[in-house]
Each structure stands twice: as structure tokens, then as C-alpha cells.
TrEMBL record:
Keywords: Molybdenum cofactor biosynthesis, Nucleotide-binding. Pathway: Cofactor biosynthesis; molybdopterin biosynthesis. GO terms for cellular component: molybdopterin adenylyltransferase complex. The gene is moaD. This is Molybdopterin synthase sulfur carrier subunit. The lineage of its organism: Bacteria, Bacillati, Bacillota, Bacilli, Bacillales. The keyword Nucleotide-binding applies. InterPro entries: Beta-grasp_dom_sf, MOCS2A, Mopterin_synth/thiamin_S_b, ThiS/MoaD-like. It comes from Shouchella clausii (strain KSM-K16) (Alkalihalobacillus clausii).
Length: 79
């Protein structure tokens, strides 16, 4: 299983801060598409969001393995 974490506004949109899915052998891109479809996230809300796998930033082509933790981190502004 892959643990998926949603931060800030993405957690509000998804209605939960975390979930688990069976996405081993699939890519971050496929997981992103799943998140958009399953949690009704706006593609715009993920535009500019960073994705981290096991606490390291990852590309959309990164392949996931069982036990990974994936975090969707939206852009944050502040002063």
C-alpha cells in the first residue's frame, strides 16, 4: 500500500488529510490523476503543487513501491 498525504487546502478539498491506496508499480502521475478523479480535486489546485515521495521531492515519472509515503504539498505564500 502507498500512504497518501494531502496538506493545507488540498486536505480540505479531499475531505481528508491521508489515505492509503494500492499503487505499487505505478507512477506519481497516475497517482495524481487518481487523486483528481477520486477526491474531486481541481487540476488547478494541483498545478504548482510539489509531490514528495518518502520526504524527497519527486517527478511525475517516479515509480512508486509498496510502503512509500506520498505527500501532495500545495504552494504556500506568506510573509
Amino acid at each position: 500500500m502507498i500512504k497518501v498525504l494531502f496538506f493545507a487546502g488540498l486536505a480540505e478539498q479531499a475531505g481528508q488529510a491521508e489515505t492509503e491506496v494500492d499503487f505499487a508499480g505505478r507512477t506519481v502521475e497516475e497517482l495524481t490523476e487518481w487523486a483528481i478523479d477520486t477526491h474531486r480535486l481541481s487540476p488547478d489546485s494541483l498545478n504548482g503543487a510539489m509531490v514528495a515521495v518518502n520526504e524527497e521531492f519527486a517527478s511525475q515519472s517516479t515509480e512508486l513501491t509498496a510502503g512509500d509515503v506520498v505527500a501532495f504539498i500545495p504552494p504556500v505564500s506568506g510573509g
